[in-house]
Specification:
The protein is mainly β. It contains three helices and 24 strands. The strands form five sheets. Strands 12, 13, 14, 16, 19, 20 and 23 form a seven-stranded antiparallel sheet that branches. The longest helix is centred in the C-terminal third of the chain and has 19 residues. It starts with about 30 loop residues before the first strand and ends in a 14-residue tail after the last helix.
Length: about 450
Amino acid sequence: MNHIEGDNELPGYTPRAGSSVAPQDALTSGSERTISLEDSKGHKWLFLSVTSRAPSSESWPVFCSGDLILGNVTLEVLKSESSKAIVVTAVIQVTASTTLIGQEEQKFLVIEKDLWTPAMALPDGSRVPRLEKGHYSWPFEIALPNETEVLDRKEKKRFPLPPSFTERASLAYINYKITITIKRSALRVNQTLTTDFVYVPITKPELPSLMFQKACQENIPFVGPEGDPEGWYILPPVAVTGTLFGAKRGNIDFNVCRSPLSYARGSAMPLWLTFTGTNEQALDLLANDQAIRIFLMRSLATGSDATIDQLGKPTSNFVNIMARAVFWPTRDGSTIGKRVLQGEVSLKKALKQSVIFPRFSVRYHLEVHPFEAVGFVQEHPVSSPLLTQPVNVTSFNATGIVMRPFAPPKYAEEIENFNNNVGVLENGNQRFYHHGGYGAA
């Protein structure tokens, strides 16, 4: 049995004073990333340092909802000059492109803060008309808001800040940056130093039923929908009619039950299948892990209709399989005329969290596809899913609850093999942030 508790938790960081958004169990660790700018002789004269949740100083800074961006700007002046101003600008931007040649980026949040102008005092309280030769340092802090106002379909609306997002060959990106600008006289070029950073909104699933919570906390198997009706969501029943081995007709009804509607990446989505019918052979053929085809799908939408929920079918939509469910027989769950299977969908840690934002959305949905059973031919073959249900993927687990995988070793290996195959496709089609697995969600 795999234990994944804490796998998708970020290192701790000091959040905004009074914030109730940051994780309650945050550690005090983190890192400081420093970048610099050199002159033509290779002398480093401008430094930007940022403290964040990132696991190492080599990683991009990582921030969550409610965090303060804390940093320091250091300026080495080799000779006296009259800098017009020093400005720290946190430029948070989104680029959503619907064509191969791209579109102009659209900034949805810009926060600017002056560190020093000739009218301002230096950090030591002194005032000077210009910066003399020497060493200067300015600490700064920038509070990230939890939401921003954006134009959506010709109407201004407020949306939560979206997570960072980037993938190779994607037509949409969400980029966050911190920029320090050294403004000089009108006859001289301003100089800038910029670092990207990763933003992770803190989203969590709703708490499951008390019986589900007990199973998660005590690491014991889940109770099915008959014993825990409050813990399961029952999808509409589906009837399947077909022919067995070209001769015998079979009618099977099956129900799909899923646990809560939201799941953290790096966790597992419990499923429960019930098959009923009068043909025992048809039941055995269809109530089989190899015949059942249930997938977790991701749809990425760009353009003006991205915020419209059409079960993963907005304009300019790109749909990919992210995971396949596995199933195994439940203990004492099968009788004459009935088969019961327990299953799960493994949500990889690398999944991007769900996001709905103007011109860009990431949605997930569970799709039940037609069965593929040797010897069974469906009476009215269809290529479209038999069932489609939305799924919300969050960045963190519910407080104190981790949906652990319970698949037996044989099926756990099947999940791993499928994920590896999907990973090969992703590696050829995606680009990931190098920040220790955090954030670019």
